[in-house]
Amino acid sequence: MNFEEIKETIRAGVVVAMDFSRELTDEEVLSLIDEGILKFETRGSISLGERIRLKREIFNSLRKLDIIQEYLEDDRITEIMINGREGIFLEKNGRVIRSEKCFKRDGRLEDIVQQIVAGCNRSVNEASPIADARLPSGERVNIVLPPVAINGPIVTIRRFPSLPINMDRLVEIGSVTKEAAAFLKRLVIAGYNIFISGGTGSGKTTFLNALSQFIPSKERIITIEDSAELKLLNAENLVRLEARIPNSEEARPISIRELIKTALRMRPERIVVGECRGEEALDMLQAMNTGHDGSLSTGHANSSKDMLSRLETMVLMGAEIPISAIRSQIAGGIDVMVHLTRMRDGSRKVMEISEIMGIREGEIDLKTLFLFDGRNLVKKGELTHKDKLFRAFEAGEVEKIL
User: Fold this and answer.
1) Helix (H, G, I), strand (E, B) or coil at 63
2) Residue 349 confidence (pLDDT)
3) What is the pLDDT, as a whole number, of residue 269?
4) Max Cα distance, the chain (Å)
């Protein structure tokens, strides 16, 4: 018998021996696995290495996420992409590789999918085949089931560091220069509204986390997300809100837009919206324009200018407003744009930091402050609107005026 056959034989024996009339502890399950391995050893020899591997993999299949679990425990892996039973791809050290493993048993991947969504009180099935979820350890999960997914259940897991990466670490790995990081730190403390843009996997959430750590710890922060991912370690007065989709109990869905409106009644000093994808952009901009300084958010785009166009489209999804009024809302609400890009070698870098100057000839006027020149992020201009910075300096919050 090969290793997989031995594992399935022992696993089947453990399942038979388990008492399903009560909740077994992990220690009891591990003890049953040890007994199963000992019984099998009477029929053939198992090396010490195989014994350790059998114990780990059988336990993961019974109590955790089966073969996915070892990938979740590998800090070098940042993305797990499962294309049905046969195809598992991993982003490891910035490179995408194919795993040698696959799901051997019919229905096992489907069982894991249900285990994941049940853990965060969500549901996914043929009638509603698309879902976003998160794991208890914070990983973001996207699930697409048949009939939408033709080649079986598609599961994409985005992993984040166990401890959020701070700005010092981003400087160390070359994602941003020390000068630009110090500049952004002063802007966050002073209460500038900052919008982060970038493509998929460019590090928007990581950068948003890093910026959020500069918010003074005494301020009341409200985070709003589709699936909770942000980790604000130094925040004392923190409220975390998460959108809700319809579940099997027919609970009423709660949208990002509704959460933003609710947050405005909760005496926020800072509002952090994990990502703007649709009509909630209107409510976010209105919040920024009504005295809620220091708000932060992210969005998908290919450049800062492209992000402004996408924001216009998002606002139009929520209300029929003249484009001139939308641009005024954007120019009045957002102070600074930060654009990130994922490079060919897998690294993530800040490509541009721009200041929104206002409206010029009907268009939003962007002024470049820092620009990536192919090797470094180079300073190109000085901040023009320093009113918030001066107020923060007078209050003793910012050490030095730029």
Assistant:
1) helix
2) 95
3) 93
4) 84
Of residues 163 and 219, which shows the higher confidence score? Answer: 219
**Angstrom distances, CA of residue 356 to CA of 147, 177, 363:** 45, 21, 11
Beta strands in 183-273 (DSSP E): 194-198, 220-225, 237-242, 270-273
Asked whether 337 and 326 are in contact (CB, 8 A), the reply is no
Cis peptide before 146 (omega within 30 of 0): no
Q: Do residues 138 and 58 make contact, with C-beta atoms less than 8 angstroms apart?
A: no
- pLDDT at residue 250, as a whole number: 60
pLDDT digits (tens, 9 = 90+) for 19-52: 877 888 889 889 999 888 888 876 667 788 888 9
Instruction: Determine if residue 341 is left, alpha or beta; phi over 0 gives left, psi from -120 to 50 gives alpha, anything else beta.
Output: beta
The residues, ordered by sequence, that sit 6+ positions from 243 with a Cβ below 8 Å of its Cβ are 224, 225, 226, 253, 254, 255, 256, 259
Token representation of residue 156? 């994409």
Write out the two tokens for 193.
Answer: 């509204």
Ordered by where they begin, the domains of the chain are 1-63 (no CATH), 65-159 (3.30.450.370), 167-394 (3.40.50.300)
- Give the DSSP letter of residue 285: H
Please, which residues have CB within 8 angstroms of residue 192's CB and are 6 or more apart in sequence?
Answer: 293, 294, 335, 336, 388, 389
Residues 129/144, Cβ–Cβ less than 8 Å: yes
pLDDT tens digits, 186-236: 999 999 999 999 998 899 999 999 999 999 988 999 999 987 788 887 788
